[in-house]
Batch of 2 targets.
Target 1
Amino acid sequence: MSPLRSSYTAGRDIWNDFLGNIGYGFVRTGNLLASRLVLMLLVCSSRRVRWVVEQPEGSSLPHHPRFQELLSIVKEPWW
């Protein structure tokens, strides 16, 4: 299998809160990595460390529920 997956294959869209089809291992891994990233960014923010997350234009990370929660907690601009 190709390491590159489309959002169509992953099933990430507004209808499932961008969590994707968790029947796929790569989707579960992606969700786990997103959760770990958010945890690390919360720690950074609590310690007043500036952070930047660089993602390709088509990334669904900004729509991920945990990342959205991070943005609601951290009131500093993240861009």
Target 2
Amino acid sequence: MMEAKKAAAEANASLFIASAGLGLVEASDVIPSYDLTVAKGLPSSIMSKLPHGTTEAGWWDEIATKDAAVRFETRLSR
């Protein structure tokens, strides 16, 4: 994470993180603590906590709402 922050600072760019529980968040956003991962096969995998038959694409569609996309695009245009 330190290397990503350094690269973003050197490029004068925003740093975004794909969060398993919250979708796309800016690195400076204050978010609640939680134990989720997108890695398959782990007890904390988001996929193991969703209804049977949920796909990775379906999960991402649910958390990557239009509002989040608009927020992302707005921050990119700064």
